[in-house]
Write a structure and sequence with these properties.
about 150 residues; mainly alpha; 2 domains; 4 helices
Length: about 150
């Protein structure tokens, strides 16, 4: 549509140029005392003037139509977004506080149990694998072997 509006604008300019050319020709005809020829050129110039004005009007109407269509489209997009947001807001009303409190208590209890179980496991692992004393014993053995070699 925008291309059509531009085409109308270009046609309007072309008609204006032809109007000016006909005016010049009418002046030349009057200088040569050819009143009938000048009158014909002036009639043609008037027709070109009307054509130019009509083309300008059509160009403006097309521009206005393009703007209206864009505006309508953007309004539709905006209303669609509002509808989506409204639906989301409607379905995500205030959650039930009692349910939330119960869920939080369950979470805290589970976390406490996991921490207690983790501590118990750590204590059991440390008792079974006393790596510090084992490493100390190995170090003593290595020192004794080195002392024997020298």
């Amino acid at each position: 549509m925008k291309m059509t509006a531009r085409r109308f604008a270009n046609e309007s300019k072309k008609a204006e140029r032809e109007e000016k050319e006909n005016m010049k020709k009418a002046k030349l005809a009057l200088k040569k005392n050819n009143e009938e020829g000048a009158k014909l050129y002036l009639m043609s110039a008037a027709a070109k003037h009307n054509e130019s004005m009509n083309m300008q009007r059509m160009s403006m109407k097309m521009d206005n139509l393009v703007t209206s269509i864009k505006s309508s489209h953007s309004n539709q997009v905006m209303m669609g977004a509002f509808n989506k947001i409204t639906n989301l807001m409607y379905y995500s009303k205030q959650p039930n506080i009692e349910v939330m409190a119960t869920d939080l208590e369950r979470f805290e209890n589970c976390m406490d149990e996991m921490l207690i179980n983790g501590k118990v496991m750590d204590e059991m692992m440390n008792k079974n694998t006393n790596t510090d004393s084992t490493a100390d014993q190995m170090m003593e053995k290595l020192r004794m072997e080195m002392a024997l070699e020298t």
